C-alpha cells in the first residue's frame, strides 16, 4: 500500500517526544551503501526546517576497502540543533550502523560515549557462522562499553519494498531518523524527488516507499523520539557545502575560466560549477595534468580575464614553478587549495591544514603571494569574489585556502544578494598612455597598471626572467633588487588596508588561542564553554595569512600564553628524543613565532579528523590547570 506524509503524520500526532537542544548522529556503513547521501539529506532537511546544521563526511582512504572491515568505515556525521552549528561537536548521541564492524574505527577515534544509541543492522546475526560469531562478540563488547544497543532488521524491512536492499537501505534509514528526530516528512519527500529526478518515476516511488517504511518502523518499534525546536530566521537561506559555495563564488566573481585537473577533495567544486559556468558563457578546462592546468589559467589571465585553478596539496607542489611565473610576471590569478592530509598523496580523503608553509614559501627565490583562509562555508563564497578583486588590483596570484572539512560540510547561511560590483568591468582597450611602462612600479605601493593584450601601444614582452620596468630582461643588481622590493611592497600596501582580528572573549587573560580556516567553530565553542566555567581564555581567528592582519603582536602581549590550534603536525615534548630545544612546531605557530618574536605554543594533531571542541577544551584545562568540563 502506498503511504503519504499526510497519512503517516496523522498517526503520529500526540506522540510523546523529548525536547532536546541538539543531536549528533552518525550513519556508518561499507563504501557504496549510500550513507553519505542519507546524512546529507538529513542535514539539508534539517537546515530547511530552520535548524542549525554541520555535516562531516567519514570517508576511507581506499576507494573501496573490503566489506565489513574495521578501518573501512564510510559514512557521515550530522550535527543539528536549535542554534547555529559551526563544527562537528563531540561524542555522537546516535549511530546507525549497516554492519557492526565499521563501528570499531569510530570507537577508536573516541567518537562515541557511554549511553550513545547504536542502531545496528541485525542480518549479520544469522549470516555465515564466522560472521555470526563476530557479530555476537561485537554486541557483547559494545554493551560492556556502555552503549545502548538496538538491533534492527533493516534488510528484512527493505526487502518488502525493493529486491536489492543495498540500493535502498539508506533511504529507509532516512525515514527512520526522520521519525526519531521529528523531521518534516514533506521536505524529506522533496529531497528524495530531487535526488532521483533523473531516474524515473518508478525509482522515485520505490525510494519514497522506503522512506515511509523506515518512518513507520521507528514509530511502531523504537522507544526514543525527540524534537529539536527551531528559531525563526530573518530572510532567505541557502544550504550547501564549502565546495559548492566556492563554485558559486567563482561565478559570482565574474570569473569565466576555470582550469583544473581532478584531485580529491577539490574536484567536486568544479563538478558543481560545470553546467552553470558554461551556460553563463564561461569554460571549465580539464587539463592533462596539474602543470598544464595552471599554465592554461596563467595564459587566460594574461589575456585579460582573471582565471581560477582549483587543486589540493599534491597539485600545489606540481604548480609551484608556474606560481612563481605569475608572481614574477605579475599576472592576476586565483588559486583555490582544498587542503588534505600529506605529505605526498598522504590522506586523500582526510582533513589537514598542512599546505600553509608550502603556499607561503614554496617557490624559488622570494615569491610573495597573497593568502586568504575562509573559516566558514559562507566565507568560501565571499572570499572568491574578494580574491579576484585583490588579484587584479595588486597584479598578483591570490590563494584561497580551504580544507576537506569545509569542502564537504553542509551548513545554511543567508542567501547572498548578487551585487553588480562583484563583477569585473569590461576589458580596458583604450590607448595605452604614452611613456607608461609595463611595470611602472609605484614607489609607495609597488603596484603598476596592467596592460591588456590588444591595447594600442600596450604591447610588451612577458617574461619570467628578472626584468626592468619595461619588461626587458635585466640582470643588473639594482634592477633585480628594485623588482623584488616592488613585488614585496604590494603586500605591505594591502596589509595597510586590513583591520586587526576580532577577539572572541576578553582582550586580556591567561590564554589566547589562535586559529585559521575550518577550526574556527570548534575553537570558539571550546572557548565559550571554558569561559562559562570561569576560565580567562579568548581566541582570535586569522583570515589573512599573507599579508598578516595588523595588531597581532599587541594582542598577544595582553595574554600570559598564546597557543595556536591547528590540524597540523607538531612534536610533543617528552616523546623519545623530543626536547624544548629541538621540537618542531605546527605551521601557523612557526609562522607567528617568526613574525612576532613571541613564544607562541601550539596544540595540533594529524588524526585526519576535524578539530573537536571537547579535545580543545581538554587542552585548555591542561594549560590552565582548571576543571572546566560540565
TrEMBL record:
Q: Does the keyword Oxidoreductase apply?
A: yes
The Pyruvate/ketoisovalerate oxidoreductase catalytic domain extends over 32-216
Q: Report whether Oxidoreductase shows up as a keyword of the record.
A: yes
> Can you supply a Gene Ontology BP term from the record?
response to oxidative stress
Which keywords appear in this protein's UniProt record, sorted alphabetically?
Oxidoreductase
Entry GO MF terms: oxidoreductase activity, acting on the aldehyde or oxo group of donors
Taking every annotated instance into account, which residue ranges of this chain make up the domain Pyruvate:ferredoxin oxidoreductase core?
512-580
Q: Which Pfam families match?
A: PFOR_II, POR, POR_N
Give the InterPro entries listed for this entry. Answer: 2-oxoacid/accept_OxRdtase_asu (IPR022367), PFOR_II (IPR033412), Pyruvate:ferred/Flavod_OxRd (IPR050722), Pyrv/ketoisovalerate_OxRed_cat (IPR019752), Pyrv_Fd/Flavodoxin_OxRdtase_N (IPR002880), Pyrv_flavodox_OxRed_cen (IPR002869), THDP-binding (IPR029061), Transketo_C/PFOR_II (IPR009014)
All residue ranges annotated as the Pyruvate flavodoxin/ferredoxin oxidoreductase pyrimidine binding domain in the record:
249-476
Q: What is this protein called?
A: 2-oxoacid:acceptor oxidoreductase subunit alpha
Amino acid at each position: 500500500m502506498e503511504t503519504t506524509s499526510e497519512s503517516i503524520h496523522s498517526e503520529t500526532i500526540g506522540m510523546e517526544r523529548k525536547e532536546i537542544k541538539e543531536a549528533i548522529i552518525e550513519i556508518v556503513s561499507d563504501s557504496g551503501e549510500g550513507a553519505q547521501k542519507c546524512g546529507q539529506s538529513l542535514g539539508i532537511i534539517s537546515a530547511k526546517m530552520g535548524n542549525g546544521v554541520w555535516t562531516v563526511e567519514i570517508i576511507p582512504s581506499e576507494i573501496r576497502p573490503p566489506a565489513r572491515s574495521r578501518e573501512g568505515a564510510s559514512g557521515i556525521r550530522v550535527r543539528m540543533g536549535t542554534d547555529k552549528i559551526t563544527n562537528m561537536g563531540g561524542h555522537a548521541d546516535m549511530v546507525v550502523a549497516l554492519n557492526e564492524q565499521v563501528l570499531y574505527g569510530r570507537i577508536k577515534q573516541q567518537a562515541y560515549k557511554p549511553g550513545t544509541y547504536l542502531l545496528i543492522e541485525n542480518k549479520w546475526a544469522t549470516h555465515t557462522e564466522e560472521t555470526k560469531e563476530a557479530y555476537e562478540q561485537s554486541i557483547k563488547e559494545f554493551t560492556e562499553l556502555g552503549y545502548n544497543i538496538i538491533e534492527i532488521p533493516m534488510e528484512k524491512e527493505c526487502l518488502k519494498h525493493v529486491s536489492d536492499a543495498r540500493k535502498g537501505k539508506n533511504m529507509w534509514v532516512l525515514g527512520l531518523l526522520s521519525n526519531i528526530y521529528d523531521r518534516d516528512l514533506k521536505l524529506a519527500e522533496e529531497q528524495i524527488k530531487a535526488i532521483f529526478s533523473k531516474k524515473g518515476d518508478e525509482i522515485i516511488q520505490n525510494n519514497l516507499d522506503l522512506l515511509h517504511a523506515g518512518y513507520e518502523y521507528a514509530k511502531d518499534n523504537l522507544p526514543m523520539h525527540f524534537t529539536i525546536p527551531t528559531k525563526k530566521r530573518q530572510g532567505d537561506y541557502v544550504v550547501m557545502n564549502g565546495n559548492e559555495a566556492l563554485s558559486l563564488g567563482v561565478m559570482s566573481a565574474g570569473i569565466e575560466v576555470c582550469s583544473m585537473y581532478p584531485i580529491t577533495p577539490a574536484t567536486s567544486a568544479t563538478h558543481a560549477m560545470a553546467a552553470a559556468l558554461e551556460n553563463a558563457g564561461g569554460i571549465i578546462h580539464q587539463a592533462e595534468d596539474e602543470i598544464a592546468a595552471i599554465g592554461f589559467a596563467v595564459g587566460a589571465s594574461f589575456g585579460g580575464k582573471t582565471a581560477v585553478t582549483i587543486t589540493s596539496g599534491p597539485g600545489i607542489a606540481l604548480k609551484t614553478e608556474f606560481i612563481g611565473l605569475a608572481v614574477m610576471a605579475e599576472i592576476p590569478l586565483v588559486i583555490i587549495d582544498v587542503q588534505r592530509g600529506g605529505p605526498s598523496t598522504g590522506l586523500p580523503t582526510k582533513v589537514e591544514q598542512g599546505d600553509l608553509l608550502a603556499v607561503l614559501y614554496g617557490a624559488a627565490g622570494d615569491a610573495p603571494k597573497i593568502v586568504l583562509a575562509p573559516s566558514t562555508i559562507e566565507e568560501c563564497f565571499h572570499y572568491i569574489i574578494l580574491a579576484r578583486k585583490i588579484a587584479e588590483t595588486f597584479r598578483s596570484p591570490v590563494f584561497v585556502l580551504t580544507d576537506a572539512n569545509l569542502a564537504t560540510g553542509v551548513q545554511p547561511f543567508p542567501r547572498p544578494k548578487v551585487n553588480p560590483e562583484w563583477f569585473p568591468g569590461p576589458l580596458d582597450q583604450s590607448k595605452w598612455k604614452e611613456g607608461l611602462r609595463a611595470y611602472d612600479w609605484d614607489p609607495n605601493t609597488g603596484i603598476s597598471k596592467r596592460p591588456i593584450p590588444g591595447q594600442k601601444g600596450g604591447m610588451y614582452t612577458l617574461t619570467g626572467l628578472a626584468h626592468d620596468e619595461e619588461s626587458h630582461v635585466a640582470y643588473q643588481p639594482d634592477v633585480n633588487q628594485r623588482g623584488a622590493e616592488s613585488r614585496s611592497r604590494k603586500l605591505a600596501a594591502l596589509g595597510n588596508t586590513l583591520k586587526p582580528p576580532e577577539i572572541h572573549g576578553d582582550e586580556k587573560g591567561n590564554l589566547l588561542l589562535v586559529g585559521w580556516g575550518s577550526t574556527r567553530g570548534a575553537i570558539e565553542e571550546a572557548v565559550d564553554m571554558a569561559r562559562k566555567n570561569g576560565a580567562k581564555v579568548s581566541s582570535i581567528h586569522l583570515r589573512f595569512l599573507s599579508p598578516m592582519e595588523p595588531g597581532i603582536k599587541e594582542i598577544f602581549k595582553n595574554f600570559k600564553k598564546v597557543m595556536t590550534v591547528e590540524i597540523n603536525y607538531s612534536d610533543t615534548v617528552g616523546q623519545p628524543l623530543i626536547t624544548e630545544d629541538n621540537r618542531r612546531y605546527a605551521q601557523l605557530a612557526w609562522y607567528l613565532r617568526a613574525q612576532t618574536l613571541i613564544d607562541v605554543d601550539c596544540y595540533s594533531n594529524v588524526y585526519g579528523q576535524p578539530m573537536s571542541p571537547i579535545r580543545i577544551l581538554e587542552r585548555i584545562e591542561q594549560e590552565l590547570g582548571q576543571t572546566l568540563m560540565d
